Amino acid sequence: MKLKFDSNLKYQTDAVKAVTDLFEGQSSMMSYFSINGQVGFDYVNFNKDSENEREIIFGQGVGNKLTISKYDILENLRKVQTHNKIAPSESLGDLNFDIEMETGTGKTYVYLKTIFELNKLYGFTKFIIVVPNIAIKEGVYKNLKITEEHFKGLYDNVLYDYFVYDSSKLEQVRNFSTSSNIQIMIINIDAFNKSFKDIEKETKANIIHRPQDKLSGYKPIDLIAETNPVVIVDEPQSSISTSKSKEAVSSLNPLCTLRYSATHKEIDNLIYKLDAVDAYQMDLVKGIEVASLKSLNYHNKAYLKLVSTDNKKTPITAKIEVDLNKNGKIKRDVVTVKKGNDLAEITNREIYQGYIVDEIYCEEGNEFVKFTQYDDKLRIDVPVGEINDLAIKRAQIRKTIEEHLDKELILNKRGIKVLSLFFIDKVANYRQYDEDGNPIKGPYAEIFEEEYKKVIQKQKYSTLYNDIDLSLSAEEVHNGYFSVDKKGKVKDTRETKTGKIRTNKDDEDTFNLIMRDKEKLLSFDSPLKFIFSHSALREGWDNPNVFQICTLNETTSTMKKRQEIGRGLRLCVNQDGERIHERAINKLTIIANESYEDFAKGLQSEIEADTGIKFNIIEKDSFAYLTMTDKNGTPKPIGKQGSMMIFNKFKEMNYIDGKGKIQDALKSDIENKKVVVPERFEPIKKQIIDIAERHTRKVPVMPADRKRQVKVNKRVYLSPEFKKLWDKIKHKTTYSVDFDTDELIKKCSDALKTEVKVQPPKLIYTKTGLSIDAGGVTVNEEGKIPPSVVYSDEEEVALPDIIKYLQNETYLTRKTIVKILIESETLEQFKKNPQEYMEVVLRIIKRELNGMLIDGIKYTELDDSYSQELFMEDELFGYLDKNIIESEHSLYNYVVYDSKVESKFASRLEKDPDVELYLKLPEWFKINTPIGNYNPDWAIMFKEDSELHSLYFVVETKGSIDWENLRQNEKNKIKCGKKHFEALTKNHENVSYRLANNYDDFKASVE
Fold first, then answer.
1. HSE-up of 900 (CA within 13 Å, CB side)?
2. Fewer CB within 10 Å, N side or C side of the chain?
3. What is the DSSP string of 316-383?
4. CA 914 from chain center: how many Å?
5. Can you give the pTM of this predicted structure?
6. How far apart are CA 923 and CA 934, in angstroms?
7. Could you read off the pLDDT of 586-634 as tens digits, one per residue?
């Protein structure tokens, strides 16, 4: 199978545009440089006929060229940041730009597409992708291979080469520097960060920093630096976390550095942000549920678990979880102990006899406690006296198999193959070898097969027999991906105390295999469904159809929960390679040996530590990107000063404390719509509240034990009342658009007159003195003259075909476009800066056109309709107290809601005696619009004997029904929904479409 890629995902397009807009005003051109002894695309030979003299070749290298000033880039940067709701940078510094994208949202695809956009818009051809390890290196290379056909289709079969830097293949570097086509080099940071400035250690330096005969004496790094490449750093917190690695990247002489990560440690000119909260809220990754396995009422042995050690004060102490005897009842709790403490006395239980604290060791990563009569060391998070460890592992494996098969019942018929992933920390637990070197099963492999054979025979899975070959033995559905040594035996992958992989060729081969088999694993043709992998092999690879992850580690793991779930966060694909975007299907189940609460708390803590997100905290610059119009009508960010005024007002109102921690007063006033902001910021009050509300959200982690299947309520489904309701609203429509071309021309030309303010290219003039003393040559900052802008209108620029450009992007006729431009009286600005003018004009025309398309839309009922039987095909699930409420009057036994507004609306519907029945309209109930499909929220039928007399309503619920506060996209879809149901009303009476933010106001408006 081949994976398919969607080039029109808005959030990915926004991330690409954040980069390309930085260079608005840049001319499309290349730079050229001479290379002695190298064959470029343009070269001449001397002494060709001389047999005694060596042939001399002068080749021509090709590089990127930046033509706009840093002043322009800073202005562009601030525009991009304001557009993307990021506090604007006060200064620029080096051309380093950060892009934050949550794991699983297509970060690699985004920066690859950015490469092609930068080439298309500005002619850049040289790109280097710097990666931190072989796992990510292999992942990037695999992505370039599987997207090749996709990108060539998108970009007119553009010629490009990509390769992984290999010091034994330096001809690739030569081609990189001389080719005029797009060149993409993938390089591990370790390949060019060693001894590159110390001549005495030249033999220890990376080959890239040494002169090479193959390159006529050039150092490979010098040829690369001449190309002025755009450098893309993948995972900078790992790739360039040291001053040495940052210096190495500088040696590439980058035109700019684009740094992509979900967990930036250092932020420098952030231009796009899609964090963990955004990704989960927008359904861009799988939702997470946790199935926890934890013993209950097992106190038959001396239970101990080391929580922490502390040597900051005297005496040294440790916190240990134990089972305490309190008033005759056993309670598990944490106690603080020091050397000499007797746990039998502390717990009041004889079972702890002999557990007297002898030693507390506090070295980070190696903490332990020893007791006088026991040799074993008690280590952090490794419990002693718990239920037999192997029994817990068996339960985890069995639960994983059950979860897997439950999902197969639903997804097999949708053409989606289910995969499960087990992480282990010792390969010997899965595979061992006998005396003759033959592989034999380890304990986990044996347990898996025993449990699989039991579970697959359950009656509930009998319907799978048509989808799977029962003749397959349990052996064929599982396998392991492990590193293999020179003798062909699998082995553990080693890692440092901090969790960094110590890689070698064996590990590289393993990653090659994982990447190579990625599509194979997604196909039903492969019987492999359950994958065992070493826990160290945790980053740089994933598979979109991993739905269960189970960690079977014996000891404390350095593996973080974010790394663990990252292997299965990506949205799943079907057998046609198409991405599935349905929320109900995309659930990742973590089979954990800790409570749901502990897992969720740990995940939240990691997100805070890794990403800088501070849950329940409002920071002083949180509002800095918000814009207000100044006296001249120009929108400008309120900046850090304005943000500080809002922050102080929130403190005054007791919405936050001095450190910005959100208080209950803010949550209450948000819910009751009573939030107070400084008077001068009243025009942007809604945006302020949106930001405050966002800071109260957390990443949703669902408890598997509260999971319920949402089923059709047969009593309602088979009732004549439901048939009446469905017959009223089930019909599909088609739309046509009618608008006045003259009106469009006037609206566009008027908007262009007032909004187009194109600036010509600028030259920045700065003058300063130099100080020369014993310390060297330095800039005299005190004598520095502030930069001044010099405009130049002398240079004639070749004007592109603007009519063709706008026609291709808007599908308007040439005649219409010409009229718009002439009547706008802005064509003189086209000569100042053609590219900027075209982009601004296109944005304005598209905005006005979309508005008129919606205003002029007409719907007509079709003979086609949505079948009532579709409800029986839905496979829905939800979580009590999280996103479902029980129901008697709805079409389903539970109502699934997406927000508090919807939850309250459903609760009131359920309790209203006038309501006959209602339903949350399913995702497949869609209305076609010019701006995408629209799915309304509710369908409601009132009782015949009520005051509303069998009226039928389709309702859209929003947090606010203030038309000015709705986004333009929401407004347009609501307009289309209203016109769709108006078309149905012609043939089906008593159907009405309404917008509401609470049930009581809705009902009052229709009575």
1. 8
2. C
3. PEEEEEEEEEETTEEEEEEEEEETT-BHHHHHT-GGGTT-BEEEEE--TT--EEEETTEEEEEEBT--
4. 45
5. 0.68
6. 9
7. 999 988 877 767 777 777 777 777 666 677 889 888 898 888 887 777 7
pLDDT at 775: 32
Residue 839 backbone dihedrals phi, psi, to 5 degrees: -70, -40
Residue 382's alpha-carbon distances to 307, 332, 438, 748, in angstroms, are 9, 15, 33, 68
Per-residue pLDDT reduced to its tens digit, 823-848:
999 998 888 778 778 888 998 998 88
What gap in Å lies between CA 945 and CA 942, rounded to an integer? 9
Tokens of 187: 């390089």
Q: How many residues does the chain have?
A: 1007
Residue partners of 844: CB distance under 8 A and separation at least 6? 748, 751, 752, 755, 756
Of 223, 220, 127, the C-alpha closest to 167 is: 220
Q: What is the gyration radius of the CA atoms in the chain, in angstroms?
A: 32
For 752-803, how does the pLDDT look when each residue is reduced to its tens digit (9 = 90+)? 999 888 776 554 444 444 333 333 333 344 444 454 444 444 455 567 888 9
Nearest to 642 by CA among 679, 694, 690, 697: 679
For 629, the enclosing helix (H) or strand (E) is: strand 627-629
Closest CA to 109 of 134, 84, 140, 87: 140
Helix (H, G, I), strand (E, B), or coil: what is residue 449? helix
Q: At what angle do helices 900-911 and 999-1006 cross, to 10 degrees?
A: 50
Residue 808: count of CB within 10 angstroms of its CB: 9
Burial class (CB in 10 A: 0-12, 13-18, 19+), 421: buried
Cα–Cα distance for residue pair 418/529, rounded to 1 Å:
7
Which CA distances in Å does 246 have to 125, 163, 239, 332, 959?
23, 23, 9, 49, 47
pLDDT of residue 78: 92
- C-alpha span between 113 and 119 (Å, rounded): 10
Q: What is the pLDDT of residue 789?
A: 45
- CB neighbour list of residue 458: distance below 8 Å, 6 or more residues apart: none
Q: 3-state class of 674 per DSSP?
A: coil
3-class secondary structure per residue, 107-170: HHHHHHHHHHHHHHHHCCCEEEEEECCHHHHHHHHHHHHHCHHHHHHHCCCCCEEEEECCCCCC
Give the closest residue to 431 by CA, choosing from 469, 511, 485.
485
Helix and strand counts by DSSP (H, E) for the chain = 31, 41
H or E, element range at 644: helix 639-652
Residue 970: CB atoms within 10 A of its CB come to: 15
The answer to whether the CB of 977 falls within 8 A of the CB of 991 is no
Helix (H, G, I), strand (E, B) or coil at 272: strand
**For the chain, percent of residues with pLDDT exceeding 70:** 84
CA atoms within 13 A on the CB side of 292: 15
Residues of the chain whose pLDDT is less than 70?
Answer: 34, 36-59, 195-204, 294-297, 465-472, 483-517, 535-541, 554-560, 596, 610-613, 699, 760-798, 949-950, 959-965
The pLDDT of residue 501: 47
Q: What is the spatial distance between Cα 654 and Cα 633, in angstroms, rounded to a whole number? A: 34
Evaluate whether 420 touches 531 at the Cβ level (below 8 Å).
yes
DSSP state of 413: G
Q: CA-CA distances (angstroms) from residue 972 to 2, 247, 744, 847, 934?
A: 36, 51, 17, 12, 10
